[in-house]
Amino acid sequence: MKKRNLLFAAIFAMVTFAGLSVKAQDSVFSYAYQGTTLYYIIDSNQHARLVPPLYPDMYYNADSTESSSWHGYAQPQGDVVVPSSVVFNGTSYPVTAVEAFAFYPCDSVTSVTLPASVTFLEHDAFTECSLESITMPGVTEMGEGCFYIAYALTSVDIPAGVTSIPAWCFSECAALQSVTLHEGLTNIGFCGFQSCPSLQSVTFPHTLISIGHNAFLFCTSLQSVSLHDGLTSIGVSAFKGCSSLQSVTLPESLTTLSLSAFQGCSSLQSVDIPGSVSIIEEWCFNQCNNLATVTLHEGTEKIAYCAFRECYNLTSINYPATLKVIAPFAFQYDTALASPLILHEGLTTLGMVAYGDCKSIVTASLPGSLGEVSAEVFFGCTSLSTVTIGDGITAIGEQAFNHCPNIDTFFVNCAVPPTVGPQSDSTFFTYNSTVVVPCGSAEAYRQHTAWGLFSDIVEDCNVGIPETNLPNFTIRVANSSIVVDGAEGETVRVFDISGRQVNNCGLPNGVYIVKVGNYPARKIVVTR
After folding, report:
1. Model confidence over 50-72: pLDDT tens digits?
2. Res. 518: pLDDT tops 80
3. Domain spans in the chain, listed from the N-terminal domain onward
4. N or C end of the chain, less CB within 10 A?
5. Average pLDDT in the 390-406 region?
6. How far apart, in whole angstroms, are the C-alpha atoms of residue 155 and residue 194?
């Protein structure tokens, strides 16, 4: 028997079950029905309860860790039908409950049919039982682990009267393929369907409010999850390791998306997280290897530690204006993430290594509300070319841009140069980039211990130049020259950042102003 059940076995004789008076259980008696002999007691309500023959004790061999509630008795076999009533001492009693370990570990039972009079299944009633199917039309309450390791059970229809799936209820049911849940069910408890590797489909009712911790942990055949409005909570590791899960629908009512909820769902391709979820908890979508698109909404405030780490195929994610915190390692190793990293004012924390080794990010715009750029935040971002540092950022941590060999331009909108980690910490990988600073600030940067190592520091004295394409014109860079497509007949002039007109040929790296005819000027960056 598994460790979990050994605990129950040890205390089994000490338990007084709901509705059962010790004085009423004069003796366990047998009753034969349709060729099967089962065992019962009569409780204080004058109801019969199906029990194991060794009730209230259990055979347990400490040397072999073998245990059984049927040791020395002939176990039921085949298709077992439980009667709606039994006769004891000449009186008929309705059968209303199946007690703990009643069928443990009956390894020759094929199916069990319960009468409508049975409303309660005690904990571990069918633990390690070989039944393939169960009919239980009247059941309204089930105890913890009542089908724990029912290894041959293939499908189950939970009666409409059941409002909660208790802890461990169908845990480790290796053959379980489908589960039908009815309206009225509000909760799926801790480890309710944990480690059911054959489970392919679950119909979730509209009345469901919460899914508990580990509820579907390692259900490796589960392919889709569609959850409805009314659900408020998804527990820790609820769908962790569901490696076949391809689609998830999360409702607007959801407020709690717990840590590791979808960790390791390696077939999941996209997810739309409603704004009602203010925090995407730690490891939530970590190691979702095929996750390509994440959609966030206004209302989300925090992306926690490692939330999307090792999502190797993630290419696109939007950042809502309500986002305040991106925690350390949140997107580390997301090597396909290529959408422009544009973070809004209001973001106060961008944790260390948040985008470490995101090798496809080309542009990053950091708001001044951050105050500080954390250590190693872009470490190993080998495609990073343009970085905008917002006014208000006062410090850049050690190795923040180390191993970023292709950064061509830093737009630093800070009149006072931000402090930089000690030189030995290699905050920057190269000093060949162009640093564009506010008008009148260049000398302060040139005199700075770290910023002064950049050979190309230029001032941006043209505030307010639009960054969008001109009407019907496309401006691009080709062979270190600026090309304007669709401007036939118009005069094209190119100016450097100081406003001096330059020859538009073999331009060095830097920021330039393009004037097409009498249209508004446009700022453009030349990189090689």
Report:
1. 999 999 999 998 888 889 999 99
2. no
3. 1-151, 154-301+311-317, 340-460, 474-526
4. C
5. 93
6. 15
Q: Judge whether residue 23 has pLDDT over 70.
A: no
Q: Is 302 helix (H, G, I), strand (E, B) or coil?
A: strand
Q: What is the mean pLDDT of residues 251-280?
A: 98
* CA–CA separation, 428 and 386 (whole Å): 13
| Calpha distance 183→312 (Å, rounded) | 38
What pLDDT does residue 465 have?
43
End-to-end CA distance of the chain: 68
- How far apart CA 226 and CA 228 sit, in angstroms, is 7
Equal fold, 1-151 vs 340-460: yes
Q: How far apart are CA 170 and CA 67, in angstroms?
A: 20
CATH class of 154-301+311-317: alpha beta
Architecture of domain 340-460 in CATH?
Alpha-Beta Horseshoe (3.80)
Q: Are 125 and 103 in contact, with CB atoms under 8 Å apart?
A: yes
Residue 108's nearest CA partner among 67, 159, 143, 152 is 152
Kindly compute the dihedral angle of the four CA atoms of residues 40, 43, 45, 50, in this order, to the nearest 10 degrees.
Answer: -30
Distances (CA, A) of 447 to 26, 391, 416: 95, 19, 11
User: Using CA atoms, how far apart are residues 84 and 117, in angstroms rounded to an integer?
Assistant: 6
Pairing of strands 474-478, 481-485: antiparallel
203 backbone dihedrals φ, ψ, rounded to 5°: -95, 110
Q: How far apart are CA 166 and CA 122, in angstroms?
A: 11
Supply the DSSP symbol for 230. Answer: T
Residues in the chain: 528
Take residue 507 and report the two structure tokens written for it: 């331009």
Helix/strand/coil percent split, the chain, to 5 = 5, 30, 65
**Between these two residues, 176 and 363, which has the higher pLDDT value?**
176
**Rounded distance, CA 152 to CA 168, Å?**
16
Lowest mean pLDDT among 279-288, 334-343, 461-470: 461-470
Does pLDDT of 3 surpass 60? Answer: no
User: Omega into 328 within 30° of 0, i.e. cis?
Assistant: no
Task: Give per-residue pLDDT as tens, 302-323.
Answer: 999 999 999 999 999 999 999 9
Give the residue from 227, 124, 119, 208 showing the smallest Cα distance to 172: 124
CB-CB contact of 458 with 525 (8 Å) = no
What is the rounded CA–CA span in Å between residue 59 and residue 522? 85
Nearest to 50 by CA among 7, 108, 104, 2: 104
The answer on pLDDT for 422 being more than 90 is no
Dist. CA 112–CA 62, nearest whole Å: 31
Q: Is the pLDDT of residue 98 over 80?
A: yes
Top-level class of domain 1-151: alpha beta
